[in-house]
Amino acid sequence: MALPKIILHGYWRSSASYRVRIALNMKGVAVTHRSVNLRAGDQKQSAHLDLNPQGYVPILELEDGTCLTQSLAVLDYLDATYPEPALMPRDAILRSKILAASLVIASDIHPIQNLSVLKYIRAEYGQGDAAVKEWVQHWITRGFESLEAMGNASKEFFLTDTPMFFECCLIPQIYNARRFGVDMTPFPKLLAVEARCQALSAFENALPENQADAPTADE
Ligand SMILES: N[C@@H](CCC(=O)N[C@@H](CS)C(=O)NCC(=O)O)C(=O)O
Q: Ligand 1 center to residue 163 CA distance, Å?
């Protein structure tokens, strides 16, 4: 069987790639997954930089070779191109609130815990594992405190009764939080949204450990 012509250049543990995997699964869009090994530095190779001069994943490469970057812009493209199920509501105020919550993650939390930022802190400021871990925990916790207050307690998911754009961002960020040992007990609303999302196959199939490039138990 021929492989799908749309290619997602990503990495199993990249949370920005994870956002796009969830959205693709929700929309039922089949893609070929091409792994960019961030630990090995594949993102710095010229072949990758030709596709994304920022040297990041994800990249969604369309059938005609057009490369879309920045996960939130890719989610926006997917929602415009494959309207069902919608990732954004029509209501302009709700839409703005969903985008604001998504940006708490994508603009305020995630960039300061990115691999290249953590490497820089280690190399330029001589910080070790404990300090780096504390840094990441601090900024995730600060961001989650805001988000916990921004959710709507009467809704099944964060601000809506179906998972949308924000949930594509939240679930990968919670995955990262656990990876860095963040205490999640102060965030019951976020945990309830997570539990509802994880019951859905679109989210389960996007889990890092369910990706072909995830290391096996003995690696
Ligand atoms: N704002 C970008 C962030 C992309 C990003 O930070 N990707 C990370 C993986 S989650 C990456 O490629 N890191 C490689 C590096 O830091 O060298 C997006 O949302 O797509």
A: 23
Q: pLDDT tens digits, residue range 138-189? A: 999 999 999 999 999 999 999 999 999 999 999 999 999 999 999 999 999 9
- CB-based pocket (< 6 A), ligand 1: 14-16, 38, 43, 55-58, 70-72, 106, 114-116
Would you state the structure tokens that stand for residue 39, as one six-digit string?
Answer: 């630990």
pTM above 0.70, yes or no: yes
CB atoms within 10 A of CB 119: 11
Q: How far is the CA of 18 from the centre of ligand 1 (A)?
A: 11
Minimum-distance ligand 1 atom for the alpha carbon of 110 = 6
Q: How far is the CA of 60 from the centre of ligand 1 (A)?
A: 13
Enclosing H/E stretch for 171: helix 165-179
Query: What domains lie within the chain, and their CATH numbers?
Result: 7-85 (3.40.30.10), 92-204 (1.20.1050.10)
Contact (Cβ atoms closer than 8 angstroms) between residue 87 and residue 100: no
pLDDT tens track for 5-52: 999 999 999 999 999 999 999 999 999 999 999 999 999 999 999 999
